[in-house]
Fold each of these.
Amino acid sequence: MAIRLDGQAALVTGAGRGLGRSFALDLARHGAKVVINDYGVGLDGRGGDPSVAEAVADEIRAMGGEAIGNAGNVASHEDAYRMVKAAMDTWGRLDIVISNAGFLRDRTIHNMAEDDWAAIIATHLTGAYNVMHHAWPVFRQQRYGRAVFTSSNAGYLGNFGQSNYGSAKAGLIGLMNVLKLEGDKYNVMVNCLGPGSFTRMTAALMPGDRAAQMSPDLVAPAVTYLCSPDCQDSGYIIEASGGAFGRVAIVENDRVQLSEPTADDVAEHWAAITDLEKARPMWSIRQTLEQHKAEKQQPR
Ligand SMILES: NC(=O)c1ccc[n+]([C@@H]2O[C@H](COP(=O)([O-])OP(=O)(O)OC[C@H]3O[C@@H](n4cnc5c(N)ncnc54)[C@H](O)[C@@H]3O)[C@@H](O)[C@H]2O)c1
């Protein structure tokens, strides 16, 4: 199997640095043309520098690839429209969207100012909605699309002091869960990534000598696979860090039926109610993933 993305067009947000830059370069190495979006902000999301996106677009062009720099803000609905339009105007298609732009404003909940909450939700969660809203009509018309949202274990597992960030990153799981259903009949696959890598965002949290071992380049192969026609899975959360890859899932068990239940009955059956031994991942509120896969294999 040789994964190639020749003739395909991609949009990667936050692609001027760190993980996004590695994702964009790897997509380009596999033949994709890439819109490099980056607002060029500081670590706390303030400021803006258009040269950040352009520098990575230059890198791709220097490798012999095709790229457009875009210095828009993903939190702006109009800027997100212009990112999608840039791909359509230049290449007439958009096959891949990676929603990755982001920054941190960590505070414990009692210190979390309204602006720190709103700015993080606007960029990580609303930013993903913005690009997907504008890319979706293109995906539907092409009857093809691949999307990856950079989530975080701070959202689906939890990390102290990151209520804004964790909520936004968990929100991306909800967005994925719905879009995977809306995209199913259009061959649109939507997945989430839980990365771990040494970037400016995490430099203060990891010893500097782990930079090579935790390079974002070791995460990028998961994203390239998820964005390829070879990937036929949707709604997965894939963890990737230091060259190690795995999966996280929300699972559901069989409910315990109680007759005329009281709180005492719930307490009495608590061990069975919360037992996950036979729990399985779901495709939707109606079907397990297994049932969905079996149904898809049925001749229509
Ligand atoms: N590094 C990790 O270990 C790690 C772990 C989990 C999740 N993440 C997530 O991965 C993504 C990339 O993070 P990174 O570590 O590469 O950080 P980074 O700071 O190196 O890169 C993020 C880029 O996003 C850009 N950006 C920020 N706000 C933007 C906006 N509103 N519009 C457009 N661009 C914007 C920044 O300018 C920056 O270049 C983020 O969403 C982050 O939350 C990172």
Amino acid sequence: MTIARKLHKQGKITCLDGHVGVGKTSLVNVAAYTCFQDYIKGETHQLLVPCVETFDLRQGESTEEFAHRVFRKVAQTLIEKSAQVRGMSLDMEGKAALDAWLNNSHMETVSLGLKWIVECSTGKALNNSSGFQNEGFEKAVRNWLKEIFQQRGTGGVVCVIDNVELLETAANARKSMEALRDRLFNIEGLRWVFCGANGVIHSLAASPRLSAFLNTPVIDVANIHPKYLGPLIEARTREFAPEYERAYLPINIEDMQWLYMLLNHNLRDLLGLCDEYCETEFSLGKTNLTKDVRKARFDKWLRKATSDRYNQLSSRLPKSSWAILDAAMTNDFKGTFGVNEIDALNAASRESVSSEGFKKGLRELERHGLVSRIINGDVESGGDEFKRDVCTVTSKGALVHYGRMLKEETTSISDTSWLKRVHY
Ligand SMILES: Nc1ncnc2c1ncn2[C@@H]1O[C@H](COP(=O)(O)OP(=O)(O)OP(=O)(O)O)[C@@H](O)[C@H]1O
Ligand SMILES: [Mg+2]
């Protein structure tokens, strides 16, 4: 609802941030789809059309290349969706702007023109004679957007720039977005969404060059509460099982809930791991077991899966990394700690780590994907950046830590009872 409301708000870019794998992309997609359906059902005057693809920012891609990618996908979107909204008198073939533009080419009919746009939008040039370059194509799409959306509550095609955190540093992300600002973010008929993990979107919001364009505050997408895992799995089973009535899951919901906590609420990794487990069980023919047997088999599998992961890494990381991870998984931190909390982490540990050891240990944890850093504050403040960042144990880190617990190798001295079902 919040996202849909923000999408309807004219002009400003909707912003979402949250931990990796909590469901940000799904949430945006559902919101954009709902807005589109609401228009079709006549519940709103504002037409919002979800773009057929989400966009990612690629290292080394120029602003122009990115813009061209966007225009191609927007054209493709309008062509694909026009069939669905035709009944709503969105007959794009008849649009004057498109017509006028087409008349300049050697093509004779609107349908040929449409075909050309389809080919352009899919990257396969059809019309050798036209001589239209990117510029002509972009102009046509812009006109098209103007024509379509001017009369429909000034809506637009919803374009999502996703996974902004993959640009590695917040400074990179900010630079890329600032470069795109005047080129793309004020085009009539486009509605933008920025989606990223671990604070990168918050850091964009701190940019004076961008802040006026953004719809703030940034929406913080929290994890789905474990109690909703049951209905969530049921919905997925209903959607994906060929015969829902006879669907059988070789894993108990309670065990999934517990694994979800253990994975630090990473829904993506939870579903991935459960999928891996269920496939194995099916291949072994374990398709009709009692709840207790299912639980026992799952526990055994998890022990092995976590031990294997830990064994692969145990000698590759320095002692300081393990000390930090163990301390971070105590009740004192519950998987999240500030990079300036070295003293508190040391207090929760049998192994004292020096300031140099802490930096190295943390670097190695990040390099192996056991911990990820949440950008927290102004990236341009130089050295201070490190002091304000917050780290969170990833689902992989949490699993490996569980592997250490099983081997009784943890070095923490504080309570770890928040990991309720963890047994030595
Ligand atoms: N409400 C939901 N019901 C059922 N499944 C969901 C729901 N939300 C998310 N999922 C599933 O959880 C997984 C992770 O969701 P999604 O990809 O949206 O997360 P994300 O936050 O965008 O992740 P990342 O940070 O890795 O991009 C996907 O497989 C998605 O299908
Ligand atoms: Mg995503």
Amino acid sequence: MAVSISFLHCGDIHLGNNQYNEPVRLEDFAKAFRQVTDYALKNKVDFVLISGDFFHKRAINAGTLEQAVELLKPLKEADIPLIAIEGNHDKAYYKDKNSWLSFLNNQKYLYLLQPSFKDGSIELLPWNNEESKGSIFDLLNVRIYGLGYLGITTATRLSEVQDYIVKDNDKYNIMLLHAGVNRLLGQDLGGVKTEIMEPFKDKIDYVALGHIHTRYDIDDWIYNPGSLECCHLDEFKYGVEKGFYHVTVKDGQKSMKYINSKYRPVCICSIKIEEKIIMEELYSVITEELKNEVKSSGFQIRVILRGKSSFSPLQLDMNDMEENLQKDFEALYVEIVNELNLPQEGSVSSVNGFKREEIEKLVFKSLLEKNTNWQDEQLDKAVDVVSKIKELVLNDSSEEELTEFLVQFGEYLISEEDEVQVPFKTEEGEKE
Ligand SMILES: [Mn+2]
């Protein structure tokens, strides 16, 4: 294979994420993506891949669309093609076929690769230039298979597409997929185990993933760049990389460069409050801690208060403290998570105290206990199914997806056997 090309691979751009209802956040996400487009122009790459979630949601507003057009225009003018797939965030609803990404596709700002479905099975069709649609895209001597976001059916669909993907020695073969590989505990929405990818090992040279917001690579073959900005405070961890890949293939040999993106600074500060601290001292204890970490303006700050206090945490005016901290540190956003006086290290506690999901599960459990005959393990699993349904709904999953999930995992709730493993949650703060 004598292919020589250079391309960028990014994902999870989340344009239009109006976080904290702060207009400046909309700018942040555009700025983050501008790093990719600027880099592409400067380095004159052959093309750019977006592995899903270009937009934060399906229903974007006019301002976000304008932003997108503004960002994509220079690439178009420089003849640098952009090849994208939909993610779970910007996927069109099952019923209305067109997402804003397909609008951008029709306007020739990008090529949106989408699989089609026939009699319930997935089909990968070659790109049709007249209709501007398809999922197998040829460009230079590269072939790109765009699979998009397949949700809970990812593993099944991947086994169905095997015949469509053929080894082509004269080409550099890329798969674009919005899914987590080997990053999820158990099976999750859009998550598969590495083994599922094995059959493609001989056929695909580069697997371009999106979905998980922190960077990871597998076997020098599967690459997930992570998001460019922090889309949620939970996904921030110290030392975790965010950015995009610059891939250079020379005579078939690949070399990788990871470009770290600049994003709005985050500070997550967990403070253990000593019992001797009186309420009036609390604010200065917090500011002392923050001083070490918050060294510029514009930060996003989360303060977690732990430990045992001599005063009742209910007496604290959190809003007031948040507002003052925001002013004192010239922060964009401050939130205080009050975990004072919660039982630590117990059955329902964790390092950070109570987790909301655990409390939620206790509520689901007591409701289900009252209204059904489920007991013990079956009850626990029912609780997991309910939690998962809630998560799916919050993720804007389609009715189709919800039904599919219920059929797949709800079965054992009405049977005696319970061999099916219920999918559990992802590693904390990682999903999307
Ligand atoms: Mn995402």
